[in-house]
Amino acid sequence: MSSVTADHVSGHGHDDHDHKPHGWRRWLFATNHKDIGTMYLTFSFTMLLVGGVLALLLRTELFSPGLQFFQPELFNQFTTMHGLIMIFLAIMPAFVGFANWMIPLQIGASDMAFARMNNFSFWLLPIGATLMLVSFFVPGGANAAGWTMYAPLSLQMGPGMDFGIFAVHILGASSIMGAINIVVTVLNMRAPGMTLMKMPLFCWTWLITAYLLIAIMPVLAAAVTMLLTDRHFGTSFFNAAAGGDPVLYQHVFWFFGHPEVYVMILPAFGIVSSVVPAFSRKLLFGYASMVYATAAIAILSFLVWAHHMFATGMPVTGQLYFMYATMLISIPTGVKVFNWVATMWRGSLTFETPMLFAIGFIFVFTVGGFTGLILAVAPIDIAVHDTYYVIAHFHYVMVAGSLFGMYSGAYYWLPKWTGRMYSEKLGKWHFWTSMISFNITFFPMHFLGLAGMPRRYADYAAQFTDFNEIATIGAFFFGFSQLIFLYLAIRAWNGHGEPAPAKPWEGATGLEWSVPSPAPFHTFVTPPVVK
C-alpha cells in the first residue's frame, strides 16, 4: 500500500450514541455495510461447508475402485453441484463480504454507495442457494452436466437443470449489483486526499474485479438463456441435429469462465498485498506496478478463453494464438509474486496466522500457476484434458489461492470486525493442518492425471487406487481442519478472547486501523482527511 497511515488521519467523527437497529430487523433490512458484509461472510462460509460435504462424499466414493456408495448419476450430480456451490455460493460471496466490510473503512467512506441495493444483492443469494439445493429433490435429480453445463448433455437433463439455470441467473444479478455498488463507492466516496494511487491494493483489486463482473455476468446469462430456450422453446443454438453447434456454447461459456477465474483470485491478491507489508514492517514493494499488473491480468483474461477448448479441434493457428496469449498472463502474475517476495526481503518479519496464510498462499498459488503454464501448452493440454491433472491445477489455484487468501484476510481483520483477539495457537494449528492436508489431497492428483485418470468418473481402474486413497484421507483431514476456523470465528463473534486494540498488528497501515475495534456501527460520520 502507499504511505497512508493511521497517524496521518484526522476527524474520525465516531457516533458515540451508536444508534443501530436490533433483533431480526437489523439483519433482514440491513443497509449498514458492516452488517451486510457479516451476512455475506456467514452465508459463504455456510455454503463452503455444504460444498465441502459434497466433496467428501465424492472422495468417499473414490477411496477404492468399484461403485461403493453412489450410482454414477448421483455422483455426477455431486460433482456438478460441488463446483457450482463452491464458485457461486462460497468463493464469490465471501470476497463480496470482504469488500462490503473493508472498502468503506479503507477509503474513509461512511458506507457503500447504494445501501438498499446492497441489501437486495445479498438476499438474492439465499434464493439462488435454495433453488440449487432443492434441485436434488426434483424428478431426475440435480444438474449433472458438470459445473460448466456443457451442451448437448445439459439439453438432456431433467428439471433440476432448469433450477440450476434460474439459480445462476439470480446469483449473476446479485453479482452485477454488488459490482456496480463497489465501482461507484470506490470512484465517488473516497475521503479527501485519498487519490486512486493512494488506495490500499485491496480496493484496487476489487475495483478491477467489479469491472470484470459487470462485463462477464451478462455473457453467462446469455449462455444459460440459450440453454433454456433450446430445452423448452424449440430453438437450436447448441443442437447439432437441428443445425446448432455445441462448441458455440463452450465459446460463450468460457468467454465468461476465464475472466471468472480472475474474479475469484484478484481480491485474494489484494488481501495478500495488505497482509505481507504489515507483517514485514515495510511498505509494499512496487505499489504502482502491482496496480498495473492487476489491470493487465484483467485485460488479458478476455483474450485467452479458448485455452479451455484445445481438444475441440480448433485450427493450429488458433491453438498457437491461445497458447501464447495464455503464457503472457504469467508475466503480470509473476510481477505480483516478485513484489510480495521483495516486500518480505530484509523486512522485520513475524509469522502470525495472517502472515502464515499469506506466505502459504504465495507458495501454493505459484505451484498452481506453474501447472497452469504447463496446461497452456496445447499438445500437453490435449493429452491431459479432462484428467485429474486439471483438477489438481484448478484446486491449487482456487483452494490454496482464493481460500488461503480469504483466511489470511479473515485472521487479519477479525479483531477489527469482532473487537476480540483469537487464539494465535489455534490459528497456527488451522494453518498447518490445512497446508499439509491440502497438499496430501491434491498433489497426488497431478500424477493421477498424467497417468490418464479422467475426471468426473465414479469409478476407475485399479492402478489408480493408491493415489486415490491418499487423496481421500487428505480430503477428510483438510475438511475437518476448517472447523478450527469456525470455532475461532464464533468465539470472537460471541465476545470471547482478549479485547482487541484499534491497531492489533504493529506494522499495519491504513484508515481501517484508525477506528476503534470493533469498528463502530457508523464509522466516518465526518470524512477523515488523508494527508
Automatic annotation (TrEMBL):
Its EC number is 7.1.1.9. Residues 9-20 have a biased composition (Basic and acidic residues). It catalyses: 4 Fe(II)-[cytochrome c] + O2 + 8 H(+)(in) = 4 Fe(III)-[cytochrome c] + 2 H2O + 4 H(+)(out). Residues 27-531 form the Cytochrome oxidase subunit I profile domain. It is an enzyme of class 7 (translocase). GO terms for molecular function: cytochrome-c oxidase activity; heme binding; metal ion binding. InterPro entries: Cyt_c_oxase-like_su1_dom, Cyt_c_oxase-like_su1_sf, Cyt_C_Oxase_1, Cyt_c_Oxase_su1_BS, Cyt_c_oxase_su1_dom, Cyt_c_oxidase_su1_bac. One of its GO terms (cellular component) is plasma membrane. The chain crosses the membrane at residues 36-58, 78-101, 122-145, 165-189, 201-228, 261-279, 291-310, 322-342, 354-378, 390-414, 426-450, 470-490. PROSITE patterns: COX1, COX1_CUB. The keyword Iron applies. It is found in: Cell membrane; Membrane. It comes from the Bacteria. Cytochrome c oxidase is the component of the respiratory chain that catalyzes the reduction of oxygen to water. Subunits 1-3 form the functional core of the enzyme complex. CO I is the catalytic subunit of the enzyme. Electrons originating in cytochrome c are transferred via the copper A center of subunit 2 and heme A of subunit 1 to the bimetallic center formed by heme A3 and copper B. This is Cytochrome c oxidase subunit 1. It comes from Pollutimonas harenae. The gene is ctaD.
